[in-house]
Amino acid sequence: AAGYAKIAYQTAYLKAHFPEEFIVASMNLSINKTENLVMFKKEIDDLGIDFLKPDINHSQTEFSIEINKENKKCIRFGLAAVKGVGYNAMDNLVFERNKNGNFINVVDFVSRLKTDVVNKKQLEKLAQSGSFDSIENNRSFIFENVINLISISNNINKNTNQESLFSNKDIKNEYSNNLKNTKFWSDQKKLMFELEVIGFYFSDHPISLYPKELFSILNISDYETIINDNNCVKAKVVGSILDIKERTSKDGNKYAFITISDKKNQYELTIFGDVFRNYFQLIKEGNLLIFDID
User: Fold this and answer.
1) Cβ neighbours around 33 below 10 Å, total
2) Could you tell me which of 197, 192, 119, 125 has the C-alpha nearest to residue 151?
3) Predicted TM-score of the model (pTM)
4) 146, 107 Cβ separation under 8 angstroms
5) CA–CA separation, 271 and 279 (whole Å)
């Protein structure tokens, strides 16, 4: 018992005095468990710590602490936590960046990395997560040019040891001109992809896509208002589903714990019996729903 008490004290001390370091270490232990990262995201928001999105020129392989312009500690999203990109591939990406400097543009990126990073899956996931935003703010441009970018990478690497009348910079610029232009994704599509590959939203929240007046007309309550109102017994809330944990009771009835978020908060609701069965088709990650709670 004394040993457990000591560990509990040490954990509480670290969390209280070094919250950024404590959360980063905890998130790195759960780097492949999105449901845990969603939980830590709530803790980061509650503590008022700035959480920075994934970025090929700033992120490390794992979650890390970054000092901003105001000399304040922030937490930077780790590249390996983007779903489907692979830890070793992101390690190689960071190694190349540390060795030869930041990536200038997307052609520079694909020309400097090997096929474990420059392949269809990795490029698409990094684009969907917004990891290229610092060099190309049109995520659709990279996503739709993935096949072209892989071809460019193969051609540049193939010709690396061959003499050319043109400089490497000229060759890269020429390749850039051959990429097709694309329209920006809609905000809704951009957020949908963020949720898919990160587990939550960075750019904005789907609620922002609707006018505030709509929620007033529908009599939607703010989560903080409900929590602070001791007389509140029933209310309506709106939120986007981040995580779903289905359970079965002893009687064989299914129910679920769902994590939902609005623009300011992230919290858990429990949906029982008939309600869960009747609305099962709507209860999907990413759906923005109105909930009657009591």
Assistant:
1) 14
2) 119
3) 0.87
4) no
5) 10
**What number of residues does the chain have?**
294
Read off the tokens for 38: 């969603």
How far apart (Å, rounded) are the C-alpha atoms in residues 36 and 243? 10
- DSSP E strands in the chain: the ranges are 51-52, 64-67, 73-76, 235-248, 254-261, 266-271, 288-293
First vs last C-alpha separation in the chain: 39
Residue of 263, 166, 176 whose CA lies nearest to 223: 263
| DSSP single-letter state for residue 255 | E
Assign 283 to helix, strand or coil. coil
State pLDDT tens for residues 132-184.
Answer: 999 999 999 999 999 999 998 888 877 655 554 444 555 556 667 779 999 99
**Whole-angstrom Cα distance, residue 48 to residue 86?**
30
